[in-house]
Design a protein that fits this description.
alpha/beta, eight-stranded mixed sheet, 6 helices, 8 strands, about 25% strand
Length: about 200
């Protein structure tokens, strides 16, 4: 940031696994980017993405959901871990826990998620197998604002990929993941700049 420019948007990234989307987001937030990564948090103590975040110089935290008796207790611990980082935005990047309506409402418009389908099609899990079973010729991914309804917030960006005749769920998932790695950083930059016009990538 140059002198006199606004403070960068503070971004916390929540993961549960290897963190490939997290890595792309962190790598994109350099130079004159309007956002900065301030925390990578996982609900899985051994998540591979934690080591990747540390290697990129981003602080990490763990809030193991299994160590808490219910979702309310887990989310209270999540709040406590997030507080020191003071995030302006939270990016869910393969975070495999459903957040409560109360947690989401406290951050209305400030939680983003990437979902492996062209919403509103195929909310929930197993999106690639369901797209193949439905005979789709186009598939892809969506970045959206998180609302209390699952995979149902305002769409901020979508990227399409073709469904090939010999695709399996695995080959289609790999193609969609490549699109996710392009889409999520592009949408994050726009949101950090104050632009929530839906972005389309092909």
């Amino acid at each position: 940031m140059t002198a006199g420019s606004p403070e960068p948007v503070r971004v916390a990234i929540l993961i549960s696994g290897s963190g490939s989307n997290m890595v792309r987001l962190v790598e994109s937030m350099t130079g004159e980017h309007p956002a900065r990564p301030v925390l990578v948090l996982s609900n899985v103590p051994g998540a591979g993405g934690l080591d990747r975040a540390r290697a990129l110089g981003v602080p990490t935290a763990v809030v193991d959901h299994r160590a808490h008796p219910d979702r309310a207790a887990f989310e209270a611990a999540l709040e406590e871990a997030l507080a020191p980082a003071r995030p302006d935005l939270i990016c869910l990047a393969g975070f495999m826990r459903v957040l409560s309506a109360d947690f989401v409402a406290r951050r209305a418009g400030r939680i983003l998620n990437i979902h492996p389908s062209l919403l509103p099609k195929f909310r929930g899990l197993d999106t690639h197998a369901r797209a193949l079973a439905a005979g789709e010729t186009r598939h892809g991914c969506t970045v959206h604002e998180v609302t209390p309804a699952l995979d149902d917030g305002p769409i901020l960006g979508q990227a399409e990929v073709p469904v090939l005749p010999d695709d399996t769920p695995e080959t289609l998932a790999a193609r969609v993941l490549e699109a996710e790695h392009r889409l999520y950083p592009a949408v994050l930059r726009r949101v950090a700049e104050g632009d929530r016009t839906p972005l389309r990538l092909d």
